[in-house]
Amino acid sequence: MKNYNQKMDEKKFRQLSRRELLKLTPILALGAFAAPTLQESLLKKGLHLSDWSSGLLFRKEHPAPTFADADVAPLASFPLNYYDVDDPGIDLDGWTLTVSGAVQKPGEYKLAQIQALQRVRQNTRHICVEGWDVIGRFGGARLSDFLNLVGADPTARFITVNCADDYYESLDMATARHPQTLLCYEMYDQPLTRGHGAPLRLQIPTKIGYKQAKYLTELKVTHVLDKVGYWEDQGYSWFYGL
Amino acid sequence: MRNTVIEIVRANEGSDKEEPIIVAQAVYEHPFVVRLCHWLNTIALFVMVGSGLQIFRAFPSFGAKIPERDLVNWPQAFAIGGWLGGALQWHLTFMWIYIGTGLLYIGYQIFSGNYRQVLFVRRDISGVWPMVKHYFFFGEKPPIREAYNPLQKQAYTAAIVLGVLSVLTGFAVWKPVQFSWLAWMMGGFHYARIWHFAVMWLILLFVFGHLVMVILHGWNNFVSMLTGWKKDPEYAVSGSDGTSDQ
């Protein structure tokens, strides 16, 4: 508490009040967010700050909560969100995953080769950016095991995927290597249905729904992110780790 | 904490022998950091609520997605961001300002000792009901001795608690895996989202009451949150020598 004189001249009080009011003017800097030319880049910076801190908060081994079979929602109430078509017309018998980039063994991989890796089944919560959530049962191979199979460069920082429905996504390597991140070919112990991304999708319990691309056709291991993601290019967060 | 009351004087130009005329009394009620945080928070809260409501529009329900039963079709005119992605940009940007302001405010209050002006404590409990009677049931006005009366302290303390809860529930919704313990305490992600929404409405309830009181208490009270100085506070005018409350 400042010690003021007991008596103060009227003019001096007015000056003092004005000075105290002017001290608040730095707040007007927030008005930059209302300026059309600055708004977009400021919000993008804010989103980047959130993504950057999300990366710091991410713990490589920390598992997403898993649930008992009794908590799993029936397959019929597991929503199908798709951005274009729910059946991109994949020939399931002739399907292969094209692997490229910083790997020792690039090429075409059949579903049987992925299914030959250790199968993981997990009941995890799927959270959509819209706000809804559903607990489902998923099965597949660890993406980490697959990256070992293809001989991915351990110094590579990202993976990118392309999909039969022209969707595309990318992941940081820490998330790609997380033990719960799956190349998912099963839901509810059955092969993926068309609507859920047959024959192969990403299932990542540590990420928001739109990162978990369906209908995978291509996977690339890379040092530089040349393609980000379908929704990210519309303005959504890239990292969006849960 | 009693603040120093000063007298604002006007030189008596009629005669140099006479004492200057006392035109008003004033008290420095709101330190700079408190005022700064108040107005920063006003803006941040406005954006957080507006963008939050736009995010809510994407799935205005707390049930399952299938079948989806919407609670309310919230009008876009009362939302910020235009669409879900835009609203998330606003929300994830202004949350830093909201959190930063909150930390600055709480840190300042604790280290400056100014928290005594605001914090609702045990001895304030008995003063709440007389104030409620006065405001809502035409009861007699209890004597005002401090900057904030007991009901005010209770409201402001509750608002600070709600602010903290809005951040905690927000982190449970944003990071239900990394902060799985936080989400777990709220019943998991699904319920954390409900809590986050409920806390927002409680904050809006406070804001409504706050604005009503600001209007009722007039100009000098409003100006005090801008300049720090409150002219002729209720608790000062009673003193016969103008220095009763020190």
In short:
The complex is a heterodimer of chains A (242) and B (246). With 242 residues, chain A is an alpha+beta fold.
Describe this structure in words.
The complex is a heterodimer of chains A (242) and B (246). Helices cover 21% and strands 24% of the residues of chain A. Chain A is an alpha+beta fold. Chain A folds into 2 domains: 7-57, no CATH class; 62-234, Alpha-Beta Complex (Sulfite Oxidase, Chain A, domain 2), CATH 3.90.420. Chain A is elongated. Chain A starts with 6 loop residues before the first strand and ends in a 20-residue tail after the last strand. Chain B has 246 residues and is mainly alpha-helical. Chain B folds into 3 domains: 1-29 and 228-246, no CATH class; 31-61 and 75-112; 119-218, no CATH class. Chain B has 7 helices and 3 strands. Chain B has helices spanning 32-58, 84-112, 115-118, 125-136, 150-174, 180-185, 189-227, and strands spanning 5-10, 21-28, 229-231. A 3-stranded antiparallel β-sheet of chain B has the order 1-2-3. Chain B is elongated. Mean pLDDT of chain B is 88; it is low at 238-246. The chains are: A alpha+beta (242), B mainly alpha (246). At the A-B interface, strand 1, helix 1 and helix 2 of A face strand 1, strand 2, helix 1, helix 2 and helix 6 of B. Strand 1 (7-9) of chain A pairs parallel with strand 1 (5-10) of chain B.
Could you say which overall geometry of chain A the principal axes of the C-alpha atoms support? elongated
Number of helices of chain B: 7
Biggest sheet: strand arrangement of chain B: 1-2-3
CATH class of the largest domain in chain A: Alpha Beta
Number of domains of chain B: 3
- Shape label of chain B: elongated
Tell me the helix content of chain A: 10-25%
Averaged pLDDT of chain B? 88
Strand arrangement in the largest pleated sheet of chain A:
3-2-11-6-7
Strand/helix succession of chain A: EHHEEHEEHEEHEEEE
**Gyration radius of chain B, rounded:** 23 Å
Are there runs of chain A of 5+ residues with pLDDT below 50, and where?
none
Number of strands of chain B: 3
Oligomer category = heterodimer
Structural class of chain B: mainly alpha
- The portion of residues assigned to helices of chain B is 55-70%
Let me know the largest β-sheet of chain B. 3 strands, antiparallel
